[in-house]
Amino acid sequence: MKAAFVSEGSGISSIVIEDVEVPALAPHEAQVRLHAATLNFRDVIVAKNLLGSMGGITMGRDRVVPMSCASGLVTAVGGEVSRVKVGDRVSPIFAQGWLHGREPTMEMLGAGHDGVARQQANFAAESLVHVPDELGDLEAATFACAGLTAWNALFLDRPLQAGEWVLCHGTGGVSLAALQFAKAHGANVVLTSASDAKLLRGKALGADVTLNYRTDPDWAAKARAVSGGISIVIDVAGAEQLEANVSTLSFDGIIAAIGMLGSEFSWSKMGETTARIVPINVGNRDEHEAMVAFCVHHGIRPVVDVVYDLDRIQDAYRHLESGQFFGKVGLNLL
Known about the structure:
By secondary structure, the protein is of the alpha/beta class. It is built from nine helices and 16 strands. Strands 3, 5, 6, 7, 8, 15 and 16 form a seven-stranded mixed beta sheet that branches. Strands 11-10-9-12-13-14 form a six-stranded parallel beta sheet, with helices on both faces. A three-stranded antiparallel beta sheet has the order 2-1-4, with no helix packed on it.
């Protein structure tokens, strides 16, 4: 099979494709022929070692199969497996072994644990979730990291209520998933971007208010005015934008601290502001399954903007790094 490998800190140009043998199947594992995968900004972080040792993102080894989000078909199962069977459509969860509760494992795909940028892989069967017929392979491959992060930002610490307002920054995978989940739940969404063209696409997805933060320096005041106070900010930019985000909040609103596209994570500023900052650490298998069921019930179709073949994985990474996409950047593994 073909598999990609990245050397941590060596950059996108270090990613190589090699022909490797499929590992032997353990009794508790299922073998999955992976069909599709999608990238997250975290994958660029690993390749470029942008975070050092923060958050368990470093690999702790010379190289690793990158990426965390994929879907495929079960082709074989070990003798102890009952959760899945040959022919099932499945996705691996982001943190392998994190099935319930709030204590994540550190076996996060694509960093310390080999990820999904390969054609075939063995996973612990208990760390697989079923993909329903209503979702395509690429759509299901958006959920493990970006989708579940958005889900828990909205529904874990301070569950979103119908009629409340969510502020989504940018048009990447997390923000668009949050937009779609919030609208399906009966909430309202303010969407920001530096691109008027992307804001038009966001409007078509259901955004109630769109604001260009590059051309409108008063975007935060306008978000506060139109909403009467934001209940949940989907914070993918980090501490650089914290003050503006805090100014938009309702009296009980929260900053769902997710990313660091522009600076360090906002949770580094906890205790320095009266606003409640909630770090979002993706989620467990139970939450993944609840999210998928919600999407099926509401007919949500995740957005994949562009797809590259595995042999062009470096191009896919560079496309993600450029920011010139809407939703998710995908990989075809067939």
